[in-house]
Amino acid sequence: MTTNGVSTYQNFIGGQWVDSVSGRTYPIYNPAHKNTVLGEFQTSVAEDALKAVEAAQEALPGWSGTPAPARAAILFRALEILRDRADDIARTITLEEGKPIADSQGEVKRAMNIIEYAAGEGRRMFGYTTPSELPNTMAYTVRRPLGVVAIITPWNFPIAIPAWKIAPALICGNTLVFKPASGTPMSAVKLVQVFQDAGLPPGVLNLITGPGGLVGNALVESPQVNGISFTGSTEIGTAIYVEGARRLKKVQCEMGGKNAVILLADADMDKAMGGIIQGAFGSTGQRCTATSRVIVEAPAYDQFMNEVIDRTSKLKIGDGLDPTVDVSPLASQNQFDTVMEYIGIGTEEGANLAYGGHALTGGEYAQGFYVEPTIFTDVGLDMRIAQEEIFGPVLTVFQAGGIEEAIQVSNSVQFGLSSSVYTRDISRAFQYIDTVETGMVHVNAPTLGGEVHLPFGGLKSSGVGQREQGTEAFDFFTEVISVYIDHGAAATERARFI
Ligand code: NDP
Asked: Residues with catalytic annotation?
């Protein structure tokens, strides 16, 4: 339905696009033009979530009973449809999340990669056979889906993160209730339409928009939901993990980060600078893998500071739809307020504001949530800006006497998602790889990124439960059953144990 040029989008339950029982909708806005309403979305309540769970439960026998290669055929069709719609969907991401259009295009490509990778698993889905200790006995393992799984996602990668949960979950035979972040529901609708148009049977993938506290909570608490795949803040993820564990559900949570680059004095400075700038200010610092800290070995410090300020000052700030823009607006008023608050905290704590630090509010910036790329130096390890996830274009810089001290600083936070070292010294690179406390480690490359066939996730407060992507994804979305078949003609003598 469209009123005054604004479309109203619905939930997707049991193969039908439907209104919430609440009868209410909420608007979402373009972060570069904050008075522009992009669409109205359902303000769902717990009852909607439970209807979606019921639909998923009903669809489960049919979908889990569909041979995995036939499930894969639908995923391959989804891949082609997503390829056809890539430009429109990338534009949607930029419109509702704000990131530069090239980043949105990259995100859609990432979603395509995971769908392709998961579809390929339809012809593998391996278990193993093994010799039995008993005669005339066959022993093997087989994978079964978990059942109904809740997919709860953040706003910063509104296509890629849902895709990297949904595609592996579907190929494994699960049926799903997808609850996207309230800030980016339009991308979610478009992703679900891709799977619908690919021929996914009704009820296999259901979509509910609305506040996490109501809808997400109802999913976590539902006894019919066997698995929860969550990405978001450490605060919400921890609560979901505790609640899920209490109900003996299988839960994976990917959460916050405070990612550091170590720049050693022997590094290729030009290569390092490119990676640090991209990591810190690309996607306006709103990536879970964004570079939030740089730890510079002392001899390289002055050169680094000169270069980082010079390069940062040349970044073009503006609407993400402009392909020449490097840094676009923050995703929401909430994000804007949080980042400005942290810049204030850093200054009050006594860190040196070396670059930026202001909101941009005049002229072409008046309608968006723009904050200058910001650099703090003289940052104490106990300061909040050194320890907490800011999730914006704010870089904190530290100095270290050598690799040991640099690794200590890198490990001094509660988070452990991604990290990077720039060096030409292979020994120091391996020393780093062996001791840095993060789930993803990069050498001479930014803290960003990752490939879909390797596991993605963090240590410490950044992640708990099985990793996403890679073969680990299929481990999370299945239960492994051990099967023993006695095919002997006579009774087999068995030892008495378990
Ligand atoms: P939130 O934790 O605020 O929200 C994540 C999702 O959880 C949203 O869909 C939200 O719904 C929902 N939710 C909120 N409250 C509840 C609840 N009580 N029960 C169930 N679900 C709930 O995170 P953000 O969306 O703000 O995302 C940013 C965070 O995500 C950052 O910390 C970032 O580091 C992290 N992240 C981690 C990644 C990783 O792989 N480690 C990757 C990308 C981001 P609603 O929007 O309606 O509140």
From this structure: 254, 288
Q: Look up the pTM and report it.
A: 0.97
Q: How far is ligand 1, taken at its centre, from the CA of residue 417, in Å?
A: 15
Q: In sequence order, what E strands does 299-408 have?
A: 352-355, 359-360, 370-371, 374-377, 394-400
Longest dimension (CA), the chain: 88
Domain locations in the chain as residue ranges: 2-255+462-482, 259-443
Nearest residue (CA) to ligand 1, atom 18: 213
CA 207 to chain centre: 18
As a whole number, the mean pLDDT across the chain is 97
Dist CA 102 CA 297 (whole Å): 33
**Which protein residue's CA is at the shortest distance from atom 48 of ligand 1?**
212
Residue 496 confidence (pLDDT) above 80: no
For 259-443, the fitting CATH number among 3.90.1150.10, 3.40.50.150, 3.40.50.300, 3.40.309.10 is 3.40.309.10
Q: Using most ligand atoms within 8 A of CB, pick from 233, 241, 253 the residue to mutate for ligand 1.
A: 233
Q: How far is the CA of 180 from the centre of ligand 1 (A)?
A: 9
